[in-house]
UniProtKB/TrEMBL annotation:
GO terms for cellular component: cytosol. Keywords: NAD, Oxidoreductase. SUPFAM superfamilies: Formate/glycerate dehydrogenase catalytic domain-like, NAD(P)-binding Rossmann-fold domains. Belongs to the D-isomer specific 2-hydroxyacid dehydrogenase family. It comes from the Bacteria. This is D-isomer specific 2-hydroxyacid dehydrogenase NAD-binding protein. Pfam families: 2-Hacid_dh (PF00389), 2-Hacid_dh_C (PF02826).
Amino acid sequence: MQRKKVFITRKIPQAGVALLEKSCDVMINPEDRPLSREELLAKVAEVDGVIGLLTDKIDAAFFDAAKNLKGYANYAVGYDNIDVAEATRRKIPVSNTPDVLTLATAELAWALIFAVARRVVETDAVMRSGTWTGWGPLQFIGLDVSGKTLGILGAGRIGAAVARMAQGFGMPLIYYNRSSNPELEAQTKARKVSFDELLAQSDFISIHAPLTPETRHLFNRESFSRMKRTAVLVNTGRGPIIKEDDLVWALRNGVIAGAGLDVYEFEPRMAEGLSELKNAVLLPHIGSATNSSRDGMAELAARNLLAMLASARPPTILNPEVLG
Ligand code: DGY
């Protein structure tokens, strides 16, 4: 049988590449940077399958360019970069990488919660600057976490994992989600609430909803104004769920107490003024950046693509209706 041609839009862990190389000719973008739109469209012209990233736009023009395409596997759990309806219309299977990064991302949400609450980054900078004069009763007072109310936006896999971890800190849990999550409620006594209630009652809010037209800019001036002034907002989901200029306004004016961000509205850029704020902890989209998660994502993306190329059922297909 003729070997299928596969293109990977950026270097990924070898675990996934090795799986593909057993039966496919694999080409990989040799440079460790996202391809420009023109480069991407040119590279996919002759290939049967593509593994791409959240920075690659997979839309009608992409499918037009990739005229031999039998499947597209996203190297990410989030798939707002894919026009799934368009793929489905063309009967092209597309997939994502759930589960393998759930705990890593949930752990990073906790890292941000604690980093903001206890001013970890700000006070680390004080030590490095050599300006600390010794212990003082009024220095660097932060926020308590244990016993405070945690609000989860989006009670899918990652949101539920963050909620389960919160039990160790005795935190009452509330969540806002389109549908109820009875399993989460049974495990953690989490209570489903309206968005208004989530804003009004949470001491910490952690964002885990997908980016959709409904969630874009859900956090804006108006919603910040309905949060507690002592509240902290953490985002390890997708940047555009927060209107970032409005967040700068809220942090600067004490409308909320702090924010921990791993994702940004216009990555890799940040809103003006954000980097000057001591009550913000800012990370470069590293939610899934552990060895086991990234290897798991590579293997799962490869297994999805191999199934697509064999007209079999991909383990985590997003549009199963295209399967015959
Ligand atoms: C995802 O998978 O969607 C993350 O944002 C990157 O790991």
